# Entry
Amino acid sequence: MLNRRVWGGVILAVACCGGLWAQAQPGTNSITLPASVPDPLEPVNRIMWDFNKELLTHVIKPSSKAYRAVVIKPVRTAITHFGRNLLYPDRLLNNLLQGRWAGARDETSRFLCNTLAGGLGFIDVATWRGLPKSDATFGDTFGQWGWNPQFFLMLPLLGPSNDRDGLGLAADAAANPLIYFDPYSYITYGVYYNNVTDQVDDYVRFSQAEMDPYSLIQYAWTFVRENHVVNFKVEGKQDRPSLETLQSVFFTFDNPEFPDQCKTRSVLIPGTGKKLKFTYWLQHGRAPVVYIVPGLGSHRMSETSIALAELAYKNGFSAVCVSSPFNAEFMEEASTAALPAYSPVDCHDLHVALTEVDHQLGKMYPGRIASRALMGYSMGAYESLYIAAGETNQANLLKFDRYVAINSPVRLLHGIDKLDEFYDAPLQWPAAERTEKIHNTFLKVAALSRSPLRPKLGLPFDAVESRFLIGITFRFILRDIIYSSQERHNQGVLRQPIKDLRRASLYDEILGYSYGDYFAKFVVPYYETRGVDLKAPDALEKASNLRSFTDSLRANPDIRLVENEDDFLLSTDDTAWLQSTFGPRMTLFVRGGHLGNLSHRAVQKAVLAALEERRPVPQGKQPVGPPPQVKDKDTPAKVPAIP
# Structure
């Protein structure tokens, strides 16, 4: 399994850049993504990934709960410090082998300080005294000596690696003095288990929330383990809305135990005959419930969904999360269409699923639901408004007492044009430099993830980089949507065979499709076979435009919106339409990009005000916090120190 430092690198790399394998064909008008470490053992590695997932989910995680209940956090931290102190010979040797004399000196000073003054290392006195760390492993040493990894490797329990780091792990183990003295060798395994117990919850949640977590880790690992020097200089102008959007990673749940306080059940969907999972946190007594619909392709256990559930739960609401209609879980279990993108069908399927979930909760907990709110963010907000617009025509489906939309787009076709435009942002760079600049952008993400990030620190990305990071994230979501849909209903568009354990070549091909291509080559032909002509003038535009429902949305007094004026998914006309349609029922923040200000308390208060019937909703434009640091062309951005 990943150690904490590298795991953080993978998670943020995944969150920000989406982790991709493939490359487009090189050329002056194309984007060539940096290649990952080759994965010729992909079928074996995927099987090992599944083995690790099952082991950690069903064995390590349950036992970790018991362990953490008995061994309190300060004691677990002390054991971690002790384990690191024991591995001093390994770090000393590798610092020397790499010619890092200052590092060898620092690690020796830390070892002596913690051993003598810190009770054999249980107390990290050296850090209190400001002595720097200098981590070094044999994998790092081999890299310094010029060994470039030749293939990716998924190790049992230890997780992602490669040929170089795999051999390095064996050498690191040989440098551990305890393995030569039984029974003291078992101390090493005990320390490892202790460290895993504080990481396993994140690992399991990550593996559940991503449609293909293996591919994310396989790609992100390439940049986390590279020895390249990162250039943090911001060479072009910065784009405030996209930088603010990237700050959505700062919105997370406060209580690390909150995700595991949920219950997960499944409900039978009449239209498919399959069972869809949902996750909920129920108040002990009678309370209003809020159903949370996530953004495009997101899972019910995604970070933002859980954070909104915690926000609602802490303020007296029960919270229920379902996956997005564009997520593989919903697509495979609750969608009556082979692929998502046609709003009338997608939103009806979502409404049916929510109705069935509500019926089941009512049977399981009679008298516990006081009122019902539907809250969505991003694409989930759009879908919530779509349901609200047609509620009078759905007599047999659940009626909500409140609809809350957070950063909803208005016109989906405009939104996908922006996502494709952002993915193509690097075309502004010279063709000869393009791939290397993308490579450095990914290295920035991986490097930043190793230090604590705070919202007030300026992110070191110029306009092209920040837009591309957003574009590639959504392009990755599209990749999974196409793969999942074609695995179940192959339309014959893809040339590569669809194989569950060997996806690299197929993913390579799929990444050549833009969102515009998805609609033109997959969605429109599919619905033509179902008797829906989306080629007719404006047919798709009208079906995916909230302006088509202006009258019903304006007439519904139970709708509340929280929007940002600089959201890149909204045009100026869209913002004007929202204001004219919803008036005082909408809170409009001047700044925040797309979901980038959810960590601000003022925005969270607006969300809660929208949910609570008796609390007045703030009206007019609302500023949020200080502006982010936007640097001039020749001024390097301020970034956290990279250890």
